[in-house]
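Take just one protein record:
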Amino acid sequence: MPHTNAETGRIPAARTTRPDITDEPPPVCPVGAGGAGEAVDAAPGPVLLLADDRPCSFGRYAARRGPEELVLLRFEDASGELPTDYLRETAHLPAFWIRQDVPLETEAARYLSWIEGRSARPTRFCNPSEPRQDIAQRFARFVGLPHLTERQVLWVRDKAAMKDRFRALGLRTAAYQRVRTDTQVRRFAAAHGWPLVLKPVDSFACIDTFLLHGPEDLREVDLAARRWMVEQYLCGTEWEVCALVHNGAVPDVWPSALPCRPLDTVDGAMNAHISVGSGPGPVTDVATLVQRVVGGMRIDHGYLHMEFFEIDGQAYAGEVGLRPAGCEIAANHGHAYGFDIFGAILDVYTGRRPALEYGERRCVGDLLLPLPATGTVKGITSREELLRLPGVLDAVLRIAPGDRVTARRASHSSSGYVHIEGDTAAEVETRMRGVLARFRIEVVADAEGAVALSP
């Protein structure tokens, strides 16, 4: 196992597979972010400790806006999720690495010693990672930074405990139950009918989440492998909503339409979210719903995103997360309402009230581009061609010909994404389908030959 340098807290390059993790960062310099814009000037403010287990748009923004106000918290067991170009892009930032298989209290004490002699000493904390909520929030507690309590982590991470809390707050939810055996699943189905949803209580991005149409589908699932729950399959319309929280209050909410349900996207349906800045949206009083959750979960600050269903005009709470939303949902809101969404997120995590000054109002969505197989990319539609299509504001390709890629059954798996605008969510969705009709990708699969998606 790699050891860390006691003086810097970094994993030395000679001990890892990452040659660009160095003991000391180079001088601070402006960095790019994949075409996301130039560095943003900002007055000095609180220093933020940012959990960083994967590249994300918010983290790149924070690194540009105030690199002298940012310290990264990284995890040795996630080093493989940080590409070499991203490590180079953020090499000017101080980073503390939590070692694998070392007690977290030990790492917290080492961090406090490491940070003592540095000019940038964090007083605030942000964790954008869903799977690392528990370890990240416990670490923040050990080092004296603002954090979620153990109970709050359960409410926003454990999907059964989450629904227990929704019910305690008087919210409607699908029927649900923790399960450990086939018999329990069958009894639940006898009471609530097929199909039903089976998911790990700690999953994210629909990983290991299944729609079961009958008892025969249980043959594909190892119920001993994880902690599982089942829930009633709800019809109706699924929505997503994001909100910022400052001092326990919700300044505003931003709903998103989902052209296809996330659980359908992992089986090939169009994977997209559309921020509804104009045109018809949900009938639910979304602001009241979100404030009820925030108050009931005693949330002081942060970025909340929540899924809910509308059935005959009534809302059913689905799931809630307390972290910047995944994919490019947050960026959608910035485009749709004409404001600096990432700056507003940074504000709430550094204790400042966000100034929500909106500009043009429209609908904008992120369309995730397909990644059909594991193997080597032989060809893919260019960014320039995508930018010429109706409504396209921006396009980002994560892969190029010659790259080896791994397809995953997860709602965030993609070869890139496109931001698309329109006057209504329906117009955006139509334009998204037009992009998919033109998009081409060919992957030479490991064992099955070439897999191509083309017009």
Residues 1-43 have pLDDT under 50 and may be disordered. The chain has 13 helices and 20 strands. The longest strand covers residues 302-311.
